[in-house]
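User: Can you recover a sequence for this backbone? Please restate the input before giving your answer.

Assistant: Of course. Working from this structure:
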Protein backbone atom coordinates (compact mmCIF):
# COMPACT_ATOMS: atom_id res chain seq x y z
CA UNK A 1 0.00 0.00 0.00
CA UNK A 2 1.53 3.29 -1.16
CA UNK A 3 1.38 6.63 0.64
CA UNK A 4 1.24 9.86 -1.36
CA UNK A 5 1.99 13.17 0.37
CA UNK A 6 -0.12 15.99 -1.09
CA UNK A 7 1.88 19.02 -2.16
CA UNK A 8 0.97 22.27 -0.40
CA UNK A 9 4.27 24.04 -1.02
CA UNK A 10 5.60 23.22 2.44
CA UNK A 11 9.35 23.76 2.38
CA UNK A 12 11.94 24.53 5.06
CA UNK A 13 14.91 26.88 4.99
CA UNK A 14 18.13 24.95 5.77
CA UNK A 15 19.90 28.23 6.58
CA UNK A 16 17.50 29.18 9.39
CA UNK A 17 19.27 29.73 12.72
CA UNK A 18 17.02 28.67 15.61
CA UNK A 19 19.06 30.55 18.17
CA UNK A 20 19.07 33.94 16.44
CA UNK A 21 15.78 33.33 14.59
CA UNK A 22 17.40 34.59 11.37
CA UNK A 23 17.74 33.29 7.85
CA UNK A 24 20.99 32.97 5.97
CA UNK A 25 22.20 35.92 3.94
CA UNK A 26 21.42 35.44 0.26
CA UNK A 27 18.84 32.71 0.82
CA UNK A 28 16.46 32.35 -2.13
CA UNK A 29 13.32 30.33 -1.30
CA UNK A 30 12.77 28.66 -4.69
CA UNK A 31 16.42 27.74 -4.99
CA UNK A 32 17.52 26.94 -1.46
CA UNK A 33 14.53 25.74 0.57
CA UNK A 34 13.95 22.00 0.84
CA UNK A 35 11.02 19.66 0.31
CA UNK A 36 10.47 16.85 2.79
CA UNK A 37 12.05 14.29 0.46
CA UNK A 38 15.23 16.40 0.41
CA UNK A 39 15.48 16.49 4.21
CA UNK A 40 15.46 12.77 4.97
CA UNK A 41 18.00 10.16 3.93
CA UNK A 42 15.43 7.37 4.37
CA UNK A 43 12.08 7.14 2.59
CA UNK A 44 9.16 8.96 4.23
CA UNK A 45 6.51 8.50 1.52
CA UNK A 46 6.11 6.77 -1.84
CA UNK A 47 4.94 9.65 -3.98
CA UNK A 48 3.59 13.18 -4.17
CA UNK A 49 0.08 14.26 -5.14
CA UNK A 50 0.02 17.61 -6.94
CA UNK A 51 -3.26 19.41 -7.45
CA UNK A 52 -3.96 21.60 -10.47
CA UNK A 53 -5.94 23.85 -8.14
CA UNK A 54 -2.82 24.42 -6.04
CA UNK A 55 -0.74 25.19 -9.12
CA UNK A 56 -3.15 27.26 -11.20
CA UNK A 57 -6.01 28.17 -8.87
CA UNK A 58 -9.67 27.75 -9.74
CA UNK A 59 -10.48 31.23 -10.95
CA UNK A 60 -10.87 32.77 -7.49
CA UNK A 61 -8.42 35.28 -6.07
CA UNK A 62 -5.56 33.96 -3.98
CA UNK A 63 -6.26 30.25 -4.47
CA UNK A 64 -3.14 29.30 -6.42
CA UNK A 65 -0.17 28.47 -4.21
CA UNK A 66 2.36 28.59 -7.03
CA UNK A 67 3.93 31.81 -8.22
CA UNK A 68 4.11 32.59 -11.91
CA UNK A 69 7.79 31.63 -11.86
CA UNK A 70 7.03 28.28 -10.21
CA UNK A 71 4.29 27.51 -12.73
CA UNK A 72 6.64 28.33 -15.60
CA UNK A 73 9.34 26.06 -14.18
CA UNK A 74 6.87 23.22 -13.64
CA UNK A 75 5.69 23.51 -17.25
CA UNK A 76 9.25 23.74 -18.60
CA UNK A 77 11.06 21.14 -16.49
CA UNK A 78 8.27 18.75 -15.52
CA UNK A 79 7.17 17.62 -12.09
CA UNK A 80 10.08 15.30 -11.30
CA UNK A 81 12.76 17.90 -12.01
CA UNK A 82 10.81 20.78 -10.45
CA UNK A 83 10.58 18.84 -7.20
CA UNK A 84 14.23 17.84 -7.50
CA UNK A 85 13.11 14.20 -7.35
CA UNK A 86 14.66 12.80 -10.53
CA UNK A 87 17.17 10.06 -9.64
CA UNK A 88 16.29 10.52 -5.99
CA UNK A 89 18.35 8.68 -3.37
CA UNK A 90 15.22 6.89 -2.09
CA UNK A 91 14.62 5.44 -5.50
CA UNK A 92 11.70 6.42 -7.75
CA UNK A 93 9.17 8.90 -6.41
CA UNK A 94 5.83 8.72 -8.23
CA UNK A 95 3.82 11.83 -8.95
CA UNK A 96 0.03 11.73 -9.04
CA UNK A 97 -1.92 14.56 -10.64
CA UNK A 98 -5.22 15.72 -9.19
CA UNK A 99 -7.74 18.44 -9.96
CA UNK A 100 -8.27 19.55 -6.35
CA UNK A 101 -12.04 19.20 -6.31
CA UNK A 102 -12.39 20.45 -2.73
CA UNK A 103 -11.18 23.83 -3.98
CA UNK A 104 -14.22 24.25 -6.22
CA UNK A 105 -16.79 22.29 -4.23
CA UNK A 106 -19.16 25.30 -4.10
CA UNK A 107 -19.05 25.91 -7.85
CA UNK A 108 -21.78 24.57 -10.12
CA UNK A 109 -19.26 22.68 -12.27
CA UNK A 110 -15.51 22.01 -12.32
CA UNK A 111 -13.54 25.03 -13.59
CA UNK A 112 -11.35 22.86 -15.86
CA UNK A 113 -12.08 20.98 -19.05
CA UNK A 114 -10.86 17.45 -19.61
CA UNK A 115 -8.46 18.68 -22.28
CA UNK A 116 -6.97 21.27 -19.91
CA UNK A 117 -6.37 18.67 -17.21
CA UNK A 118 -4.82 16.17 -19.60
CA UNK A 119 -2.58 18.87 -21.05
CA UNK A 120 -1.47 19.75 -17.51
CA UNK A 121 -0.71 16.12 -16.62
CA UNK A 122 1.07 15.38 -19.88
CA UNK A 123 3.12 18.58 -20.00
CA UNK A 124 4.32 18.13 -16.43
CA UNK A 125 5.12 14.44 -16.84
CA UNK A 126 2.91 12.92 -14.12
CA UNK A 127 3.10 9.16 -13.65
CA UNK A 128 -0.64 8.89 -13.02
CA UNK A 129 -3.55 11.31 -13.03
CA UNK A 130 -7.10 11.53 -11.74
CA UNK A 131 -10.07 12.26 -13.95
CA UNK A 132 -11.96 15.53 -13.52
CA UNK A 133 -14.54 15.17 -10.74
CA UNK A 134 -17.10 17.10 -8.73
CA UNK A 135 -17.40 16.28 -5.03
CA UNK A 136 -20.68 15.20 -3.49
CA UNK A 137 -20.43 16.79 -0.04
CA UNK A 138 -23.16 14.71 1.64
CA UNK A 139 -22.88 11.15 2.91
CA UNK A 140 -26.54 10.08 3.21
CA UNK A 141 -27.04 6.33 2.71
CA UNK A 142 -30.64 6.67 3.89
CA UNK A 143 -31.45 8.38 0.58
CA UNK A 144 -31.18 4.99 -1.10
CA UNK A 145 -33.95 3.50 1.02
CA UNK A 146 -36.64 5.39 -0.87
CA UNK A 147 -35.19 4.95 -4.35
CA UNK A 148 -33.50 7.50 -6.57
CA UNK A 149 -36.39 9.91 -6.08
CA UNK A 150 -35.11 10.76 -2.63
CA UNK A 151 -31.65 11.67 -3.89
CA UNK A 152 -31.50 15.40 -4.64
CA UNK A 153 -31.13 16.14 -8.33
CA UNK A 154 -27.98 18.19 -7.77
CA UNK A 155 -26.35 15.18 -6.09
CA UNK A 156 -27.30 12.77 -8.86
CA UNK A 157 -26.12 15.31 -11.41
CA UNK A 158 -22.71 15.58 -9.75
CA UNK A 159 -22.20 11.84 -9.92
CA UNK A 160 -23.39 11.69 -13.52
CA UNK A 161 -21.11 14.59 -14.51
CA UNK A 162 -18.13 12.97 -12.78
CA UNK A 163 -18.70 9.74 -14.70
CA UNK A 164 -19.18 11.58 -17.98
CA UNK A 165 -15.94 13.49 -17.49
CA UNK A 166 -14.16 10.27 -16.52
CA UNK A 167 -15.25 8.64 -19.78
CA UNK A 168 -13.94 11.62 -21.78
CA UNK A 169 -10.71 11.54 -19.77
CA UNK A 170 -10.06 7.83 -20.32
CA UNK A 171 -10.86 8.06 -24.02
CA UNK A 172 -8.47 11.00 -24.50
CA UNK A 173 -5.63 9.33 -22.57
CA UNK A 174 -5.97 6.10 -24.57
CA UNK A 175 -6.35 7.77 -27.96
CA UNK A 176 -3.47 10.11 -27.22
CA UNK A 177 -1.19 7.20 -26.41
CA UNK A 178 -0.10 8.91 -23.19
CA UNK A 179 2.17 7.06 -20.77
CA UNK A 180 0.06 8.44 -17.95
CA UNK A 181 -1.82 5.85 -15.86
CA UNK A 182 -5.45 7.06 -15.82
CA UNK A 183 -7.31 6.96 -12.51
CA UNK A 184 -11.07 7.28 -12.55
CA UNK A 185 -12.70 9.14 -9.66
CA UNK A 186 -15.82 7.70 -8.02
CA UNK A 187 -18.15 10.04 -6.19
CA UNK A 188 -21.14 8.90 -4.17
CA UNK A 189 -23.43 9.56 -1.24
CA UNK A 190 -23.77 5.97 0.05
CA UNK A 191 -22.16 2.53 -0.19
CA UNK A 192 -24.54 1.56 -2.98
CA UNK A 193 -23.88 4.71 -5.02
CA UNK A 194 -20.10 4.30 -4.69
CA UNK A 195 -20.42 0.71 -5.91
CA UNK A 196 -22.46 1.92 -8.90
CA UNK A 197 -19.80 4.53 -9.70
CA UNK A 198 -16.91 2.04 -9.47
CA UNK A 199 -18.79 -0.43 -11.67
CA UNK A 200 -19.37 2.29 -14.28
CA UNK A 201 -15.70 3.32 -14.20
CA UNK A 202 -14.58 -0.28 -14.72
CA UNK A 203 -16.88 -0.57 -17.74
CA UNK A 204 -15.27 2.58 -19.14
CA UNK A 205 -11.92 0.82 -18.84
CA UNK A 206 -10.35 2.10 -15.63
CA UNK A 207 -8.34 -0.38 -13.57
CA UNK A 208 -7.30 2.23 -11.01
CA UNK A 209 -10.14 4.01 -9.20
CA UNK A 210 -9.96 6.77 -6.58
CA UNK A 211 -12.76 7.19 -4.06
CA UNK A 212 -13.47 10.89 -3.65
CA UNK A 213 -15.20 12.45 -0.67
CA UNK A 214 -14.09 9.75 1.79
CA UNK A 215 -11.92 12.16 3.79
CA UNK A 216 -15.09 13.42 5.50
CA UNK A 217 -16.26 9.93 6.46
CA UNK A 218 -15.74 7.96 9.64
CA UNK A 219 -13.82 4.71 9.34
CA UNK A 220 -16.91 2.42 9.61
CA UNK A 221 -18.55 4.40 6.80
CA UNK A 222 -15.51 3.95 4.55
CA UNK A 223 -15.51 0.23 5.30
CA UNK A 224 -19.20 -0.05 4.42
CA UNK A 225 -18.48 1.62 1.08
CA UNK A 226 -15.55 -0.69 0.41
CA UNK A 227 -17.71 -3.70 1.27
CA UNK A 228 -20.33 -2.61 -1.24
CA UNK A 229 -17.67 -1.94 -3.90
CA UNK A 230 -16.14 -5.37 -3.33
CA UNK A 231 -19.18 -7.04 -4.84
CA UNK A 232 -18.51 -5.36 -8.18
CA UNK A 233 -14.76 -4.72 -8.10
CA UNK A 234 -12.68 -6.65 -10.59
CA UNK A 235 -9.74 -8.54 -9.14
CA UNK A 236 -7.34 -6.36 -11.16
CA UNK A 237 -8.91 -3.04 -10.13
CA UNK A 238 -6.89 -1.09 -7.58
CA UNK A 239 -8.41 1.54 -5.29
CA UNK A 240 -7.01 4.84 -4.01
CA UNK A 241 -8.49 6.66 -1.01
CA UNK A 242 -8.41 10.42 -1.49
CA UNK A 243 -7.47 12.19 1.74
CA UNK A 244 -8.01 9.24 4.06
CA UNK A 245 -5.37 7.60 6.27
CA UNK A 246 -6.66 5.03 8.74
CA UNK A 247 -3.76 2.89 9.91
CA UNK A 248 -5.89 0.87 12.32
CA UNK A 249 -7.80 -0.70 9.43
CA UNK A 250 -4.95 -1.37 7.01
CA UNK A 251 -5.63 -5.10 6.83
CA UNK A 252 -9.30 -4.56 5.97
CA UNK A 253 -8.45 -1.91 3.40
CA UNK A 254 -5.98 -4.26 1.73
CA UNK A 255 -8.58 -7.01 1.53
CA UNK A 256 -10.86 -4.61 -0.34
CA UNK A 257 -8.26 -3.68 -2.95
CA UNK A 258 -6.94 -0.41 -1.53
CA UNK A 259 -3.49 0.01 -3.08
CA UNK A 260 -2.76 3.64 -2.17
CA UNK A 261 -3.95 6.69 -0.31
CA UNK A 262 -2.94 10.29 0.27
CA UNK A 263 -3.13 12.41 3.39
CA UNK A 264 -1.76 15.65 4.83
CA UNK A 265 -2.91 14.73 8.35
CA UNK A 266 0.56 13.92 9.77
CA UNK A 267 1.93 17.21 8.44
CA UNK A 268 -1.03 19.34 9.47
CA UNK A 269 -1.27 17.73 12.92
CA UNK A 270 2.04 19.39 13.76
CA UNK A 271 0.67 22.92 13.67
CA UNK A 272 -3.10 22.87 13.19
CA UNK A 273 -4.15 20.60 16.05
CA UNK A 274 -4.51 21.65 19.66
CA UNK A 275 -2.82 18.47 20.95
CA UNK A 276 -0.86 15.49 19.61
CA UNK A 277 1.51 17.61 17.53
CA UNK A 278 4.65 15.44 17.75
CA UNK A 279 4.46 11.81 16.64
CA UNK A 280 6.34 8.82 17.95
CA UNK A 281 5.70 5.25 16.83
CA UNK A 282 3.24 4.66 19.67
CA UNK A 283 2.21 8.09 20.94
CA UNK A 284 1.62 11.73 20.02
CA UNK A 285 2.83 14.50 22.32
CA UNK A 286 1.62 18.07 22.50
CA UNK A 287 4.10 20.66 21.29
CA UNK A 288 5.26 23.38 23.68
CA UNK A 289 3.80 26.75 22.79
CA UNK A 290 6.25 29.64 22.95
CA UNK A 291 4.69 32.16 20.52
CA UNK A 292 6.79 34.94 19.05
CA UNK A 293 5.72 38.30 20.42
CA UNK A 294 6.24 39.89 17.02
CA UNK A 295 4.68 37.10 15.01
CA UNK A 296 1.64 35.90 16.95
CA UNK A 297 -1.57 37.55 15.72
CA UNK A 298 -3.65 36.95 18.85
CA UNK A 299 -0.90 38.05 21.24
CA UNK A 300 -0.21 41.11 19.12
CA UNK A 301 -3.89 42.07 19.25
CA UNK A 302 -3.92 41.77 23.04
CA UNK A 303 -0.82 43.94 23.28
CA UNK A 304 -2.39 46.62 21.06
CA UNK A 305 -5.58 46.47 23.11
CA UNK A 306 -3.61 47.13 26.29
CA UNK A 307 -4.46 43.75 27.82
CA UNK A 308 -0.81 42.62 27.85
CA UNK A 309 2.33 44.61 28.55
CA UNK A 310 4.72 44.14 25.62
CA UNK A 311 7.81 44.23 27.83
CA UNK A 312 6.40 41.49 30.08
CA UNK A 313 5.55 39.39 27.04
CA UNK A 314 9.05 39.71 25.59
CA UNK A 315 10.63 38.87 28.92
CA UNK A 316 8.42 35.78 29.25
CA UNK A 317 9.26 34.63 25.73
CA UNK A 318 13.01 34.99 26.28
CA UNK A 319 12.81 33.23 29.65
CA UNK A 320 11.03 30.22 28.15
CA UNK A 321 13.49 29.84 25.29
CA UNK A 322 16.47 30.10 27.64
CA UNK A 323 15.04 27.66 30.20
CA UNK A 324 14.09 25.13 27.53
CA UNK A 325 17.60 25.18 26.06
CA UNK A 326 19.12 24.83 29.52
CA UNK A 327 16.79 21.97 30.39
CA UNK A 328 17.69 20.04 27.25
CA UNK A 329 21.37 20.63 28.05
CA UNK A 330 20.86 19.33 31.58
CA UNK A 331 21.55 22.62 33.38
CA UNK A 332 17.98 23.49 34.38
CA UNK A 333 15.40 21.54 36.39
CA UNK A 334 12.02 20.48 35.04
CA UNK A 335 10.28 22.53 37.74
CA UNK A 336 12.03 25.72 36.64
CA UNK A 337 11.21 25.32 32.95
CA UNK A 338 7.58 24.44 33.72
CA UNK A 339 7.29 27.53 35.90
CA UNK A 340 8.63 29.70 33.07
CA UNK A 341 6.18 28.16 30.59
CA UNK A 342 3.28 28.62 32.99
CA UNK A 343 4.16 32.27 33.56
CA UNK A 344 4.33 33.00 29.83
CA UNK A 345 1.19 30.94 29.25
CA UNK A 346 -0.72 33.26 31.57
CA UNK A 347 0.35 36.09 29.28
CA UNK A 348 -0.30 34.65 25.80
CA UNK A 349 -3.11 32.15 26.51
CA UNK A 350 -4.52 32.55 30.02
CA UNK A 351 -7.60 30.44 29.31
CA UNK A 352 -5.74 27.14 28.97
CA UNK A 353 -3.50 25.26 31.41
CA UNK A 354 -1.13 23.05 29.41
CA UNK A 355 1.12 22.17 32.33
CA UNK A 356 0.39 18.43 32.32
CA UNK A 357 0.98 18.11 28.57
CA UNK A 358 4.24 20.05 28.82
CA UNK A 359 5.42 17.92 31.73
CA UNK A 360 4.72 14.77 29.71
CA UNK A 361 6.75 15.78 26.65
CA UNK A 362 9.58 17.33 28.67
CA UNK A 363 9.95 14.28 30.88
CA UNK A 364 10.01 11.99 27.83
CA UNK A 365 12.22 14.19 25.61
CA UNK A 366 11.20 12.01 22.62
CA UNK A 367 13.39 13.93 20.17
CA UNK A 368 16.44 12.33 21.78
CA UNK A 369 15.33 8.84 20.76
CA UNK A 370 14.23 9.77 17.25
CA UNK A 371 16.57 8.86 14.39
CA UNK A 372 15.16 11.25 11.79
CA UNK A 373 17.29 14.13 10.49
CA UNK A 374 14.89 16.76 11.82
CA UNK A 375 15.19 15.63 15.43
CA UNK A 376 18.92 15.01 15.20
CA UNK A 377 19.48 18.54 13.90
CA UNK A 378 16.93 20.50 15.94
CA UNK A 379 16.91 18.81 19.32
CA UNK A 380 14.26 20.32 21.57
CA UNK A 381 13.37 22.97 18.97
CA UNK A 382 11.34 20.36 17.07
CA UNK A 383 8.87 20.24 19.98
CA UNK A 384 8.32 24.02 20.09
CA UNK A 385 5.07 25.33 18.65
CA UNK A 386 6.66 28.48 17.32
CA UNK A 387 6.93 29.84 13.78
CA UNK A 388 6.79 28.09 10.43
CA UNK A 389 10.36 26.79 10.38
CA UNK A 390 9.91 24.74 13.56
CA UNK A 391 6.31 23.80 12.87
CA UNK A 392 6.92 22.58 9.31
CA UNK A 393 9.95 20.58 10.37
CA UNK A 394 7.85 18.93 13.08
CA UNK A 395 5.32 18.17 10.34
CA UNK A 396 8.07 16.59 8.23
CA UNK A 397 9.10 14.53 11.27
CA UNK A 398 5.47 13.38 11.67
CA UNK A 399 5.38 12.26 8.04
CA UNK A 400 8.62 10.30 8.58
CA UNK A 401 7.16 8.59 11.68
CA UNK A 402 3.80 8.01 9.99
CA UNK A 403 5.50 6.14 7.15
CA UNK A 404 7.13 3.86 9.71
CA UNK A 405 3.80 3.34 11.43
CA UNK A 406 2.42 2.39 8.03
CA UNK A 407 5.25 -0.06 7.37
CA UNK A 408 4.76 -1.64 10.78
CA UNK A 409 1.02 -1.92 10.23
CA UNK A 410 1.52 -3.57 6.84
CA UNK A 411 3.95 -6.07 8.33
CA UNK A 412 1.48 -6.92 11.08
CA UNK A 413 -1.36 -7.20 8.56
CA UNK A 414 0.72 -9.70 6.59
CA UNK A 415 1.62 -11.58 9.77
CA UNK A 416 5.31 -10.71 9.59
CA UNK A 417 5.48 -8.95 12.96
CA UNK A 418 8.50 -6.67 13.47
Amino acid sequence: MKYYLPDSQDLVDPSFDFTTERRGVGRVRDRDDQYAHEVFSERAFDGVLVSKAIVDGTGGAGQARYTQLQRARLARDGVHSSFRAADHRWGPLRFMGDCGAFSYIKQAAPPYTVDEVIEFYDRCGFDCGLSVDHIIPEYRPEWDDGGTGRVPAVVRDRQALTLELAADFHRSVVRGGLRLTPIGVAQGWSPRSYAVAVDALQKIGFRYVALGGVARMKTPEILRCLEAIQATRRVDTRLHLLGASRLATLARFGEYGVASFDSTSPLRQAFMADTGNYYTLDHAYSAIRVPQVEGNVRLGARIRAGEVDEADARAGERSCLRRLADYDAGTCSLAVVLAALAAYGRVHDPRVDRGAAYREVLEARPWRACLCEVCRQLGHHVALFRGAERNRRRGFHNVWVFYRRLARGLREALGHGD
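That completes the design. The chain has 17 helices and twelve strands.
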